[in-house]
Design goal:
Structural class: alpha/beta
Helix content: 40-55%
CATH superfamily: NADP-dependent oxidoreductase domain
CATH architecture: Alpha-Beta Barrel
Number of domains: 1
CATH topology: TIM Barrel
Radius of gyration: 22 Å
CATH class: Alpha Beta
Strand content: 15-25%
Shape: globular
Distance between the termini: 91 Å
Order of helices and strands: HEEEHEHEEEHEHHEHEHHHEHEHH
Number of helices: 13
């Protein structure tokens, strides 16, 4: 009995202690954003999800409190790809007793070995890693099992002919993964995988600077900008349209560096661009504290002007009156 009471007592202390400290954060509970949801098959997924990266900076008590805030704001999708064992322990503790409130996207094909994230296509190694993940989470399944790091068409074709694909199909049959997803950064590889008909979720980076603007584009020509916005028809755009047509959910992540040339976009503008692409269901926040979470949730009530990414494409003409004059 004593062994049962001690973990329960620790959980209660963590819950009430974290809840109190979070409610002390000025203004967070007064945020009036209401989560919007999009369909992933028969699931309703919040348009703003959460990545595991922020939980890496917390201890278990902080993680529980942060998860409490995440859930209260309607976020119901989390990505565990790339999380180390300490981060997974934090998230497992934070979800204890409320696993059914969060849809979980987790890795298949990347394993932790010697404290490093290592890609493998060995079914036994993947199975051991998946079993460990499910044990830590205290659950029997992942909502989405993500096949990671397929970055060429040739690699996908090789996997399709391998015993590893039979393993993935077996996981679905056993119910250990409800949907098979793919983490990919290559358009050709993504197309090949999606056309197989077995991928239901695509994790793909969506960014206005790389999706919309050719490297040599003149952003000072407002007429050309307007035409670009009206006629943009890149391979990436067609990929998004394919996903929408065939009900393949795209999960993307905020581009953290914002350094892509030639134009820079604000956080709200990047989020809005991603969430207005065909097929995109959710964008993952990389928030690691209440303030960062509130910043991303602001998207739900942001003005059209704040979200308008087209404004960044048009560079203002120089003010001739303020131009420096050459010295005489």
């Amino acid at each position: 009995m004593k062994k049962l009471l001690l973990p329960l007592l620790a959980l209660l202390i963590a819950f009430f202690g974290c809840k109190s400290s979070i409610n002390d954060k000025a203004g967070f509970d007064s945020i009036d954003e209401h989560m919007e949801f999009r369909k992933m098959g028969d699931l309703d997924v919040g348009i703003i999800g959460i990545s595991s990266s922020g939980f890496a900076k917390m201890d278990t008590t902080e993680a529980y409190g942060f998860m409490d805030s995440v859930l209260r704001k309607g976020i119901n999708y989390i990505d565990l790809c790339g999380a180390d064992t300490a981060t997974l322990n934090n998230i497992a503790f934070a979800l204890k007793g409320r696993r059914n409130q969060m849809l979980i996207q987790g890795p298949i094909g990347n394993c932790w070995k010697d404290s490093r994230h290592t890609r493998t296509r060995d079914a036994k190694a993947c199975q051991a890693d998946l079993d460990d993940l499910l044990t830590r989470l205290g659950t029997g399944y992942l909502n989405v099992g993500m096949l990671e790091n397929i970055n060429s068409k040739a690699e996908w074709q090789k996997i399709m002919k391998s015993s590893y694909m039979k393993y993935l199909e077996q996981l679905k049959e056993e119910g250990k993964i409800k949907r098979l997803g793919l983490v990919c950064s290559n358009v050709d590889a993504a197309y090949a995988a999606l056309q197989s008909g077995i991928i239901e979720v695509l994790a793909f980076r969506v960014n206005p600077a790389t999706d919309l603007i050719p490297a040599d584009f003149d952003t000072e020509d407002s007429t050309a900008v307007a035409q670009l916005l009206a006629t943009a028809d890149t391979m990436r755009t067609r990929l998004y349209e394919y996903c929408k047509e065939y009900n393949i959910a795209i999960i993307t992540m905020y581009n953290n560096n914002g350094k892509a040339a030639p134009a820079k976009f604000s956080r709200m503008q990047q989020m809005h661009f991603a969430l207005t692409r065909p097929g995109v269901v959710s964008i993952l926040s990389n928030a690691s504290n209440i303030e960062e979470l509130a910043r991303d949730l602001h998207y739900l009530s942001a003005s059209d002007e704040e979200k308008d990414f087209t404004l960044e494409l048009i560079q203002p003409e120089p003010d001739e009156e303020n131009e420096p004059t050459s010295a005489k």
